[in-house]
């Protein structure tokens, strides 16, 4: 393609709203342009990269036995109401009504649409297993679109869905997709990790996220330095690292109360703590460590009141709360809820004396604690000398805290490490979540009706572009991996008005194209420095410059990922490029 004939509006300066390297370089290189917040146009270069990524996805999906189709982007509300997600998906679902006032939604995901299709078309076990996929635009009303293509309101996704007659069949389908995803991301040149994750609004049981490692990633990856364990921070398992609590029975009663420890009698006592509401304030006021305090967090889990307990130096993980309780949603109680449902006040909530209808759940660390400090459910008061097993009842113990530096691996006891990552793919075992809700069944070999056992597998195709650029760039611009580069060769003629240079450049352009090589030919009447700067910015694998030695049939070659250039006889260039 000739530079003059395409649209590559490069920029010398960084866009003012770009917070990441990928956003900055993709705009400057003329790959994308913003139409509205979180909504982008893919310009010719960006569109070529997108198509190359899609080609890789299609090739690996075909190897895995998946068949491509295309589902509608506009969904009738009845489908989402059948699955139960119309009311629970949240504000990210873009809803609208047609001229007849019928409710619809723009597809944020397609579990309902694909389940309805297979329910109507596949009636027998003889058609199973079946895996269908599509590459299509999705719509989600993100609260805060940011980072260019990494978090948008309109984006391109590959979503696949498997239908099996048994759990063993689902396991095989899941493994095939897992392996296909690994191959896709390797071919795209990504450094990535597959980690255990939460299924979120999609639902299901076993699930893995594929995370491209990047400092600007919005997700935290927790992985063990000694074994293969890796998980999203939301799901990272925590082990009880031991509680070093010792009773100070030799203190006087006055000293014990002031420092938040029990008297020699071991009974709990009320301590006046005026205007002391936070853990930091309480540790200073009582002169104790946060690890001697039990923190109480008031939640509504599917609308029911719950008080979750973690150690004072820990953070509660609401994802783990939902998984422990089997809840769909959790939200922090408001001050009004705390008063009405708990009879308590913010800053002084505690597990002792709560109404019977309030469920108390606790992190495993709480089980081994003794003589701790908790809120007294009254303003300006705390209780000290509290024993969990004696003074209140816990309905469920479980891993409820967020992993933090210093924690050990729950699998092997090794050191846990924390990295940032960008989610580029997600695979789920849905089971019968959608097929049962939507009455999607088949007849087994005995003639009995059974629900399909489903899997769901998504790749953020457009997000991949940003993730790749985030990992493959330098201070001058993008450095494209060979399989997804928009063009293989960037051909530059230094002096467009020099007939010798022009003739050799034209000859090379035609010759390379005849060999099937994709070439971007910079034939602009522009300064050589501007052309070279654009070449570094665009990041094609090989730059070929026709300059002062054109009359000798010599060109200069430079690989984008190398600092040194070298000279080559022009007649050898097609073979050299082919061998690359």
UniProtKB/TrEMBL annotation:
<dbReference type="InterPro" id="IPR044140">
    <property type="entry name" value="ProRS_anticodon_short"/>
</dbReference>
<keyword id="KW-0963">Cytoplasm</keyword>
<dbReference type="Pfam" id="PF03129">
    <property type="entry name" value="HGTP_anticodon"/>
</dbReference>
<dbReference type="InterPro" id="IPR002314">
    <property type="entry name" value="aa-tRNA-synt_IIb"/>
</dbReference>
<dbReference type="InterPro" id="IPR002316">
    <property type="entry name" value="Pro-tRNA-ligase_IIa"/>
</dbReference>
<dbReference type="InterPro" id="IPR006195">
    <property type="entry name" value="aa-tRNA-synth_II"/>
</dbReference>
<dbReference type="Pfam" id="PF00587">
    <property type="entry name" value="tRNA-synt_2b"/>
</dbReference>
<dbReference type="InterPro" id="IPR045864">
    <property type="entry name" value="aa-tRNA-synth_II/BPL/LPL"/>
</dbReference>
<dbReference type="GO" id="GO:0002161">
    <property type="term" value="F:aminoacyl-tRNA deacylase activity"/>
</dbReference>
<comment type="function">
    <text>Catalyzes the attachment of proline to tRNA(Pro) in a two-step reaction: proline is first activated by ATP to form Pro-AMP and then transferred to the acceptor end of tRNA(Pro). As ProRS can inadvertently accommodate and process non-cognate amino acids such as alanine and cysteine, to avoid such errors it has two additional distinct editing activities against alanine. One activity is designated as 'pretransfer' editing and involves the tRNA(Pro)-independent hydrolysis of activated Ala-AMP.</text>
</comment>
<dbReference type="InterPro" id="IPR004154">
    <property type="entry name" value="Anticodon-bd"/>
</dbReference>
<feature type="domain" description="Aminoacyl-transfer RNA synthetases class-II family profile">
    <location>
        <begin position="33"/>
        <end position="481"/>
    </location>
</feature>
<comment type="subunit">
    <text>Homodimer.</text>
</comment>
<keyword id="KW-0547">Nucleotide-binding</keyword>
<protein>
    <recommendedName>
        <fullName>Proline--tRNA ligase</fullName>
        <ecNumber>6.1.1.15</ecNumber>
    </recommendedName>
</protein>
<keyword id="KW-0067">ATP-binding</keyword>
<dbReference type="Pfam" id="PF04073">
    <property type="entry name" value="tRNA_edit"/>
</dbReference>
<comment type="similarity">
    <text>Belongs to the class-II aminoacyl-tRNA synthetase family. ProS type 1 subfamily.</text>
</comment>
<dbReference type="InterPro" id="IPR033730">
    <property type="entry name" value="ProRS_core_prok"/>
</dbReference>
<dbReference type="GO" id="GO:0005524">
    <property type="term" value="F:ATP binding"/>
</dbReference>
<keyword id="KW-0030">Aminoacyl-tRNA synthetase</keyword>
<feature type="compositionally biased region" description="Polar residues">
    <location>
        <begin position="258"/>
        <end position="269"/>
    </location>
</feature>
<dbReference type="GO" id="GO:0016740">
    <property type="term" value="F:transferase activity"/>
</dbReference>
<dbReference type="InterPro" id="IPR036621">
    <property type="entry name" value="Anticodon-bd_dom_sf"/>
</dbReference>
<dbReference type="GO" id="GO:0005829">
    <property type="term" value="C:cytosol"/>
</dbReference>
<dbReference type="InterPro" id="IPR007214">
    <property type="entry name" value="YbaK/aa-tRNA-synth-assoc-dom"/>
</dbReference>
<dbReference type="InterPro" id="IPR036754">
    <property type="entry name" value="YbaK/aa-tRNA-synt-asso_dom_sf"/>
</dbReference>
<feature type="region of interest" description="Disordered">
    <location>
        <begin position="246"/>
        <end position="269"/>
    </location>
</feature>
<dbReference type="InterPro" id="IPR050062">
    <property type="entry name" value="Pro-tRNA_synthetase"/>
</dbReference>
<dbReference type="GO" id="GO:0140096">
    <property type="term" value="F:catalytic activity, acting on a protein"/>
</dbReference>
<dbReference type="GO" id="GO:0006433">
    <property type="term" value="P:prolyl-tRNA aminoacylation"/>
</dbReference>
<dbReference type="InterPro" id="IPR004500">
    <property type="entry name" value="Pro-tRNA-synth_IIa_bac-type"/>
</dbReference>
<keyword id="KW-0648">Protein biosynthesis</keyword>
<keyword id="KW-0436">Ligase</keyword>
<feature type="compositionally biased region" description="Basic and acidic residues">
    <location>
        <begin position="246"/>
        <end position="257"/>
    </location>
</feature>
<dbReference type="InterPro" id="IPR023717">
    <property type="entry name" value="Pro-tRNA-Synthase_IIa_type1"/>
</dbReference>
<dbReference type="GO" id="GO:0004827">
    <property type="term" value="F:proline-tRNA ligase activity"/>
</dbReference>
């Amino acid at each position: 393609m000739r530079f003059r004939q395409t649209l590559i509006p490069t920029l010398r300066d960084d866009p003012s709203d770009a917070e990441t390297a990928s956003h900055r370089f993709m705009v400057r290189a003329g790959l994308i342009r913003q139409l509205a917040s979180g909504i982008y146009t893919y310009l010719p270069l960006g569109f070529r990269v997108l198509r190359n990524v899609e080609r890789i996805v299609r090739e690996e999906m075909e190897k895995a036995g998946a068949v491509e189709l295309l589902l509608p982007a506009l969904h009738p509300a009845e489908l989402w109401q059948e699955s139960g997600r119309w009311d629970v998906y949240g504000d990210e679902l873009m809803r609208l009504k047609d001229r007849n006032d019928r409710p619809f939604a723009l597809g944020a995901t397609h579990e309902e649409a694909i389940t309805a299709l297979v329910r109507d078309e596949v009636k027998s076990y003889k058609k199973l297993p079946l895996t269908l996929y599509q590459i299509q635009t999705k719509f989600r009303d993100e609260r805060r679109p940011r980072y260019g293509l990494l978090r948008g309101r309109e984006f391109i996704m590959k979503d696949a869905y498997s239908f099996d007659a048994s759990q063993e069949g689902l396991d095989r389908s899941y493994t095939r997709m897992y392996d296909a995803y690994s191959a896709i991301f390797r071919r795209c040149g990504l450094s990535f990790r597959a980690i255990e994750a939460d299924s979120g609004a999609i639902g299901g049981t076993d699930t893995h996220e594929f995370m491209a490692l990047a400092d600007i990633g919005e997700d935290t990856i927790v992985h063990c330095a000694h074994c293969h364990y890796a998980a999203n921070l939301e799901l990272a398992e925590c082990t009880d690292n031991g509680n070093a609590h010792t009773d100070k029975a030799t203190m006087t009663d006055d000293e014990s109360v002031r420092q938040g420890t029990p008297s020699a009698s071991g009974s709990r006592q009320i301590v006046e703590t005026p205007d002391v509401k936070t853990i930091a304030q309480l540790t200073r006021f009582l002169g104790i460590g946060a690890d001697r305090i039990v923190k109480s967090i008031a939640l509504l889990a599917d609308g029911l009141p719950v008080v979750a307990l973690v150690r004072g130096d820990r953070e509660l993980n609401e994802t783990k709360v939902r998984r422990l309780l089997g809840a769909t949603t959790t939200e922090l109680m408001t001050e009004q809820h705390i008063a009405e449902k708990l009879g308590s006040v913010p800053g002084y909530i505690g597990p002792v004396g709560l109404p019977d209808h309030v469920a108390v759940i606790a992190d495993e660390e709480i089980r081994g604690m003794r003589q701790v400090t908790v809120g007294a459910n009254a303003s300006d008061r705390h209780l000290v000398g509290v024993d969990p097993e004696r003074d209140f009842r816990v309905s469920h113990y479980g891993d409820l805290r967020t992993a933090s530096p210093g924690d050990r691996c729950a699998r092997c006891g090794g050191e846990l490490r924390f990295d940032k990552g960008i989610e580029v793919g997600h695979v789920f075992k849905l089971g019968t979540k959608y097929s049962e809700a939507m009455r999607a069944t088949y007849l087994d070999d005995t003639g009995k009706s059974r629900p399909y056992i489903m899997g769901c597998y998504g790749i953020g195709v457009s997000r991949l572009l940003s993730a790749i650029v985030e990992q493959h760039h330098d201070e001058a611009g993008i450095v494209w991996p060979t399989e997804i580069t928009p063009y293989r060769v960037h051909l530059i003629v230094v002096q467009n008005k020099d007939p010798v240079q022009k003739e050799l450049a034209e000859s090379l352009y035609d010759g390379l194209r005849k060999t099937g090589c994709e070439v971007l030919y910079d034939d602009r009447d522009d300064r050589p420095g501007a052309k070279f700067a654009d070449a570094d910015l665009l990041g094609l694998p090989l730059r070929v410059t026709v300059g002062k030695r054109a009359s000798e049939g010599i060109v200069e070659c430079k690989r984008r990922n190398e600092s040194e250039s070298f000279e080559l006889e022009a007649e050898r260039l097609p073979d050299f490029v082919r061998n690359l």
